[in-house]
Predict the structure.
Amino acid sequence: MLNVEKLNKTFRTDGGDVHAVRDVTFHAGDGEIVAIIGASGSGKSTLLSLLGLLDAPDAGSIEMNGTQLAHLDAKGRTKYRSRQVGFVFQAFNLIPNLSALENVKLALEFAEWPKEDRDERAQEMLTMVGLGPDKAVRRPNKLSGGEQQRVAIARAFAAQPQLILADEPTGSLDRKTGQKIVELLRNAASAQQTTVLVVTHDEKVAQQADRRLEIEDGVLVEIA
Amino acid sequence: MNALRRGVRNAFRNAMRSVGVVVILAVAIALSISMLIARDAVTSKIDTVRASTGNTITVSPAGFFGGQGGGTPLTTAEVTALLNLKNVTAVQAQLTERLSTSQTNLVTPITAGSLGRQFGGGAFAGAGTSGSTGTFTVPIRVIGTNSPGNSLVGGANGGGTEKLTAGTAFSATSSADVAIVGKDLATKNKLKVGSTFTAWKTTVTVVGIYDAGSTFANADVLMPLATVQRLAGATNQVTGATVVVNDISNVTAVSTAITKELGTKADVTSTEATVASEIAPLNSVKDISTYTLIGAVIGAAIILLLSMLMIVRERRREVGVLKALGATNRSVISQFVAESTTFTVMGAVVGLVGGVILSSPITTALVNASGGTTSSGPGGFIRAGAGGLGSGGSGFTPPTGAGGGFGFRGFRGVGSTLTQLHTSAGWSTLVFALAAAIVIAALGSTVAAATITRIRPAEVLRSE
């Protein structure tokens, strides 16, 4: 269960302060998929960075299953990211000189999974996203965009995190492939009871979520 | 796959760049290794040359040398006082006298020859049995010494190393009427251990016979210093001393101290000053190689530093992703350090081979370039001894050791062999290559590491 209360973040720029996130409050249950939609520059990526502890909020709280996360130190934030959060990016962001399998194992290494289990777990996750052993040994540049995003999803779910943050996961894919990726996210979230926040500006993607939130000028509102 | 393995693997990620970085590093490391080997070779040569000069200083009365000149003898007390100087380990005092035919029944084994007749009419007038050049007889040289052990073992009684072939040496403090005679003198006079001869109207017993390997030295008589002083009426007089210094590096300082102690009474000579000028070009090469070595290592580090900085900046997004996935700064830095170390190790291996191969020609070129004044011809004669008598028919033979140093010390060969350096690479070279690689990798990674710690994943991913 993710509870976010009055989260605020302001950036200082040459043109003055930009209040990217204003008093954001929401909650998301286990296995729930929540879509956050908004225009470019509305603050959705900043919100994702705050929830993924890539950035520290100026004010407010982030609570995950009863644990306060907003004020963890750098070491605590790193540990949280490695074990409790999975990221799926629009540009996939796979490590180019590692195979699909090695990319998935990377997340397991950072989460300090037992070494002897990593190979099996990574293979299992790739199978879950529909990539067989022949694809597992390929490097990202030998995979299609959809396949790369599948690897990214496998990597994100590998360490059994409590929260998946997907930033425009279908942004670089065609509609049909994007549809499959969303289905994959749904299935994985359901299977592992993981909360998934999907940031998107694609209304069709958002409609497949359990709930939809809209962010505009840093203010988050729930769409009925 | 841990961070180190990823780092090693990343080193081969861009083949062209990796080859470029490794080649540049290899050249720098090869240069530094060549310089190290050159420096070692030059240092070894300098040490050899310095060691060959011995750690002795010769003190003789001012104006007196080689049995010629004049001046006033030093006293036993003055010479003994030198033992109190810092870094002086021994002082071997000598009194050289001559026995004319009227003072001894000994007959010299050396024939006068043309040299004897030439000098007999000049410097030796009155020394022999006749001042006439036509009837000149070479006098018997008697050396009073308080260091018969050194003299016999490593001494140089006007040339050659004296080795006791029969009998025993007298003690350093002896004042008995005893003598050790040269082999040729003994043969000529049918002397054996226990035989006697007359000197200054005193019967002297032969206690030993030595062989110095030269006709000149084998015609001498060694006697206790106190005995010669007494018999020759030269009480407390000393015509020369050899001061033994504890280390070659202290020879110059001790020479200065002796000069200060004895003032204008004595001539103080050592080969140190001449050797210093002889090896100055080598020292110059040593300095050049040291600076080049340091420069090459620093240069290699800068090359690696810039390369790694470029690589980190190029992989900024990747670093951000790794951090977003939960990688610690330490883990990411380890990965890049492993990558830079891989470059460096490959460069070190290639550079080590290249450096060893190039070291000899580079060393030769350096020495030739700086040693134009060092390598031609004999180094000239350097005084290493005092006293001694020129005798007809005798040449000068380079003495060795610390025992006496009478006559000249021929120092030819030092200059002519200065350029003949032997370069070799041993374990120390390998250890240096490894150490240099570590230093280069460590220095080369610092800026990359600092850059990595400053990369914030949120900013990197926001710019997506």
Observations:
- Residues 29-59+70-223 of chain A form a domain with the Rossmann fold fold (CATH 3.40.50.300).
- Strands of chain A lie at 2-13, 16-28, 33-37, 59-64, 67-68, 85-88, 163-167, 195-200, 211-216, 219-223.
